Fold this sequence. Notes:
With 254 residues, the protein is α+β, with helices and mostly antiparallel strands. The protein has nine helices and seven strands; from the N terminus they run αααββααββαααβββα. The longest helix is centred in the first third of the chain and has 24 residues, at 3-26. Residues 11-73 form the HTH iclR-type domain.
Amino acid sequence: MSETGERRQGIQSVGIGLRVLEVLASLNGAAALGAIAQASDLSASQAHRYLASLIAAGMARQDAATGRYELGSGALRLGLAALSRMDSFREAAIALTDYVAETGRTVQMGSLGPTGPIVVRWIMGTPAISTSLMVGSPLPLLSSATGHVFLAFRPEAATRQMVERETQPQFQSVDVESLRARVRRDGYSAIRGDLIPGLRATAVPIFDLQGEAVFTATVLATDVFKAEYDDQARERLIEVCYEITRATGGVRPA
């Protein structure tokens, strides 16, 4: 075989090995040889050969009792190394800037601080939206779309004190459990003028590896933008946030 042919065959073998590794990662736990072969579009003997190579490299392992295959410690180290080098904020900012260029809408990124949600980035659309909010501005948990998403998609312990503070007698009562359930069901929160009169806001979560909302992306609109286009902007934002979640190693909760 020529040197070019050997190189081509080597590249093909690496590609198939990576496909088998990806199948191992996608299956729900340890899997039998037949299931891996079928998902990899390989014969059982071919799959066994590639699995043996992956085991030798530490990327896979075989349970001695069941004979099933699972990801190895090498794959775990590789995944953790990739995650440690990934800047989720930067990835999100780039993707959301593209969204703003595509739609013309203004987007606000939020994060959850020790005292509540906070604005961490503004990406201004056209025409620009003028509000009193800016980077560093705090947001309420129970009366902002951004806050609703963190309420729904962060552990209750992380938001308990914020909820208690915002449900004191001097504040309007809120059915917190119903609010949390609604946002979890819908996957987003939309409000109209609740925080700032005339401002419509729809917040969508960006999830981390544990399925918790690490950031929110909130699309803002005023009467300049027709309300009938809000659904279209929201659906596109949901797609973008899902792409960001996947690109940064996050997972959407069931």
